[in-house]
Design a protein that fits this description.
- The complex is a heterodimer of chains A (about 290) and B (about 350).
- With about 290 residues, chain A is of the alpha+beta class.
- Chain A has a domain of about 60 residues: Beta Barrel (OB fold (Dihydrolipoamide Acetyltransferase, E2P)).
- Chain A has seven helices and 17 strands.
- Chain B has two domains: about 280 residues, 2-Layer Sandwich (Ribosomal Protein S5, domain 2); about 60 residues, no CATH class.
- Helix content of chain B is about 30%, strand content about 30%.
- In chain B, the strands form four sheets. In chain B, strands 1, 2, 3, 4, 5 and 6 form a six-stranded mixed beta sheet that branches. Chain B has a four-stranded antiparallel beta sheet with strand order 13-12-14-15, sandwiched between helices.
- The chains are: A alpha+beta (about 290), B alpha+beta (about 350).
- At the A-B interface, strand 14 and helix 5 of A face helix 1 of B.
C-alpha cells in the first residue's frame, strides 16, 4: 500500500517538479514538510520547486528562495558587522552567517591560540563591506551558519567584481574555483554570489609556510591591465545574460560561451544588447 | 546601501581612470543603461508613468524602477489654507523598503526626506507652475500631488525619478471646469417649496475653456460679465476626454547626475559605482521648445558627497551636463510623443 503511494508520487511527477496548488499525496499516509500545506486531507504544494521526500515527510524545495546552506558548501559573503570575537557575514541566506575569530587564519603561523591583541585588531583582518570566500563549517542552534577560512584558498577577495545570481543557478561542481584561459578567475559561491577576478598564479598564492598576513588581508588591488579588465566585464555580462535566461552555470558552459562571444562580438558592449544575448543563449541550447 | 569593500572601490575607480576607461558592465563613461518608459499605468491617477533603467528585459529583475503619479485635488483658498489662486504642486517621494533592504526604517525615512526635498524644491518652484490649475479666483484651485515611488534602486535614482516625474506630468490631464453661480429665481419667491428654487447658472470659468456645451440656459438668464466675480462653485462638465493637458509640457526639467571621480566624470552609475565616487553633481535642465532651440534652462543644481569642486571645474561640468541632458531630453520627448500617439490610436478605436 505504502509502496504504491510512493510510486504514485514519483510517477505522476516526472522530474519531481511541482507548482503551487498541485496536490502531491494523501495527508493520512504522509507528513507535510516545508513548502506544503494540507487541504481536504491532501498534501498540496505551496511553492514551485522540487519534491523531496525523507521517509514519510514530503517537502518542496522552492526554486526561487534564499540560499539554504549545507556543511561543506563554498560561499562568497560580505562582512556586515564586526562583533566581539566574530564577524557577521551576509551570505544571501535567511540570516547572517557567523565567522568566528577562531576560524580564520591569523598572522604568524596557521595554528595558534587567539590572543587578545588579535581581538583588538579584528578590523585589520576583515572590516565592514569586505568580501570573502569561505566554507560552511557548522550550524548554530538557531540555524545560522558558521563559516571558516582555514585554508589558503579562502579569505579576502580583491582584484575583481561581484555578480549576484539566484542560488539555484550555481550547481555543485567538482571545484568552485574556475580559471578561464582569458586570465580570469571565477569563484562560484553556492549562495549565488560569484566573484570574477584577475587570474592569480598558483605560485603567487600565499604559501602555507610563508603565510603573509599583509598579503592575505590586503585591500590593495594588483595592477590590472585593460585586456584583463574587459575580460572580467565580459564574463560578468555573460553571467548576467545566463541569469536572465535562468541557465545554471557550470565551468564548461562558461568557457564555451566565452569562446563563442570572442568569436562573434565586435565590441565588449555587444553583450549588453538583447539580441546578442539571445543569439548566445540559442547557441548554448543548440550545443546542449 | 550595502557598503562595498575597499578593494572593490579601488577596482572601480582604477577602471574609470584607466585609458580607455572601463566599467563593470563594459559601458563607456557616458552611456546610459537601457531605459524603458510606460505612461498611464495608474488608472485612478490623473497622470502616471513607470520608468526603469537597466532592467532585465527577460525576467524584469535588476535595474532601477520608479513609479510617478499625479493626482489633482480641489483646494479651498482662504485664510488658514495654503491654497493659491494659481494652484500649487506638492511633491512627495517614498521608497519601497524592498528597494533598500539594508536600511533601517529611520534611515529609509531620512532618504525619503532627502529625495523629497530635492524633487520638490525643483518641481514646485513658481516658475514651473502650470497656468491651467486654477479653478475660481479667490475661492478654489487645484492642488496637484506628485507622488514618486522608488520600487527598486540599482543606481541613478535621481535621473530616474525626474524622468518619471516629467513623464507623469506630461501625461496629466486637468479636468475641465465651469464656474457656477447660484441665485434665487423668481419662482422661489412665488412658490412655497424651497426645493428646486435654486437655479444653477453656468458660466465659463475662463476664456481658455471655451466649450460648446449647453450654455444656452445661462444666456437666457441675461447675465453680464460681472457675474464672474460672483461665481461661488464649479462643476465638471461631461466631456469625451479626461480633460486638457497640463500646461508646461515643454518645461518640466529632467535631471542628469554627473558622478565625479577625481578629474573625470561618468553617467548612470550603478549602486557599487555610486558607492565608490566621492561626489555627485545633480543638474536639472529643461529645453523649452517655445524659445530658441538651443536655449536651455537650469532649474536646479545640487552636489552630493564629500568632494569639492573649483568654479572652473564646475562651469566645465555644467557645459558637459547640458549636452548630456539635451540628449536625454530629446530621447524622452520622442518616447513621450510615441506614447501619446499610441494612446490616441487606442481612443479612436472606440
Amino acid at each position: 500500500m505504502d509502496v504504491d503511494d510512493l510510486e504514485n508520487i514519483q510517477s505522476s511527477h516526472s522530474y519531481n517538479l511541482t507548482c503551487p496548488g498541485e496536490s502531491l499525496t494523501s495527508s493520512q499516509s504522509f507528513m507535510r514538510g516545508h513548502g506544503t500545506y494540507v487541504d481536504n486531507e491532501e498534501v498540496v504544494a505551496s511553492v514551485a520547486g522540487t519534491i523531496q521526500r525523507v521517509n514519510k515527510l514530503i517537502s518542496v524545495k522552492a526554486i526561487r528562495s534564499r540560499y539554504s546552506p549545507e556543511v561543506g558548501d563554498l560561499v562568497v559573503g560580505r562582512i556586515t558587522e564586526v562583533q566581539p570575537r566574530r564577524w557577521k557575514v551576509d551570505a544571501n541566506s535567511r540570516q547572517d552567517a557567523v565567522l568566528m575569530l577562531s576560524s580564520v587564519n591569523l598572522p604568524g603561523g596557521v595554528q595558534r591560540r587567539k590572543l587578545e591583541s588579535d581581538e583588538l585588531q579584528m578590523r585589520g583582518f576583515f572590516e565592514e563591506g569586505d568580501l570573502l570566500v569561505a566554507e560552511v563549517q557548522a550550524f548554530f542552534a538557531d540555524g545560522a551558519m558558521s563559516l571558516h577560512t582555514r585554508s589558503l584558498r579562502y579569505g579576502k577577495l580583491r582584484n575583481g567584481q561581484l555578480v549576484v545570481v539566484p542560488p539555484i543557478l550555481v550547481r555543485r561542481l567538482k571545484s568552485h574555483f574556475i580559471s578561464l584561459p582569458c586570465n580570469v578567475d571565477l569563484i562560484l559561491g553556492l549562495n549565488g554570489y560569484i566573484w570574477v577576478s584577475k587570474h592569480v598564479k598558483e605560485i603567487d598564492q600565499e604559501g602555507e609556510q610563508g603565510f603573509d598576513a599583509e598579503a592575505v588581508y590586503s585591500n590593495i588591488n594588483d595592477e590590472i591591465d585593460i585586456p584583463t579588465r574587459s575580460a572580467i566585464s565580459r564574463v560578468t555580462s555573460i553571467i548576467h545574460i545566463l541569469r536572465a535566461h535562468f541557465i545554471p552555470l557550470t565551468d564548461t558552459l562558461l568557457l564555451e560561451t566565452y569562446e563563442w562571444t570572442i568569436e562573434h562580438e565586435n565590441h565588449t558592449t555587444d553583450l549588453l544588447q538583447q539580441d546578442f544575448g539571445e543569439a548566445m543563449v540559442a547557441y548554448i541550447s543548440s550545443t546542449g | 546601501m550595502a557598503s562595498i569593500s575597499k578593494a572593490e572601490k579601488s577596482y572601480i575607480q582604477a577602471g574609470l581612470l584607466a585609458d580607455p576607461p572601463s566599467r563593470a558592465d563594459g559601458r563607456s563613461k557616458n552611456v546610459f543603461r537601457t531605459i524603458s518608459l510606460e505612461t498611464g499605468v495608474a488608472p485612478l491617477a490623473n497622470g502616471s508613468a513607470r520608468l526603469s533603467i537597466g532592467r532585465n528585459p527577460h525576467d524584469g529583475s535588476g535595474g532601477t524602477e520608479v513609479l510617478a503619479a499625479t493626482k489633482l485635488e480641489v483646494e479651498d483658498i482662504g485664510p488658514g489654507s495654503q491654497g493659491l489662486d494659481s494652484g500649487r504642486i506638492e511633491c512627495t517621494v517614498s521608497c519601497s523598503p524592498a528597494a533598500y533592504p539594508f536600511l533601517s526604517s529611520n534611515a529609509l525615512d531620512e532618504l525619503q526626506y532627502d529625495y523629497t526635498t530635492i524633487m520638490s524644491s525643483t518641481l514646485t518652484h513658481p516658475s514651473l507652475r502650470p497656468s491651467n490649475i486654477s479653478i475660481l479666483q479667490g475661492k478654489k484651485s487645484w492642488l496637484l500631488h506628485l507622488d514618486v515611488v522608488v520600487l527598486t534602486d540599482s543606481g541613478n535614482a535621481f535621473d530616474a525619478m525626474f524622468m518619471a516625474a516629467r513623464a507623469a506630468l506630461c501625461d496629466t490631464k486637468v479636468p475641465r471646469t465651469r464656474a457656477v453661480e447660484y441665485r434665487a429665481s423668481d419662482s422661489k419667491l412665488k412658490g412655497k417649496t424651497s426645493s428646486g428654487g435654486i437655479m444653477g447658472a453656468v458660466l465659463d470659468a475662463s476664456s481658455s475653456k471655451d466649450m460648446d456645451v449647453d450654455v444656452d440656459v445661462m444666456e437666457s438668464s441675461s447675465f453680464n460679465t460681472r457675474v464672474h466675480s460672483k461665481a461661488t462653485d464649479f462643476e465638471l462638465p461631461d466631456y469625451w476626454d479626461e480633460g486638457e493637458i497640463l500646461d508646461g509640457k515643454g518645461r518640466w526639467p529632467i535631471c542628469i547626475t554627473l558622478n565625479i571621480v577625481s578629474a573625470t566624470h561618468f553617467l548612470d552609475a550603478t549602486t557599487p559605482e555610486e558607492a565608490s565616487v566621492s561626489s555627485r553633481l545633480l543638474l536639472m535642465f529643461s529645453f523649452p521648445s517655445d524659445s530658441s532651440t538651443s536655449k536651455s534652462q537650469l532649474y536646479g543644481m545640487r552636489t552630493l558627497g564629500s568632494g569639492e569642486f573649483s568654479v572652473s571645474q564646475l562651469s566645465d561640468l555644467l557645459k558637459e551636463g547640458e549636452s548630456y541632458a539635451k540628449e536625454v531630453w530629446k530621447a524622452l520627448n520622442s518616447q513621450l510623443d510615441e506614447e501619446t500617439a499610441l494612446k490616441l490610436k487606442e481612443m479612436k478605436r472606440f
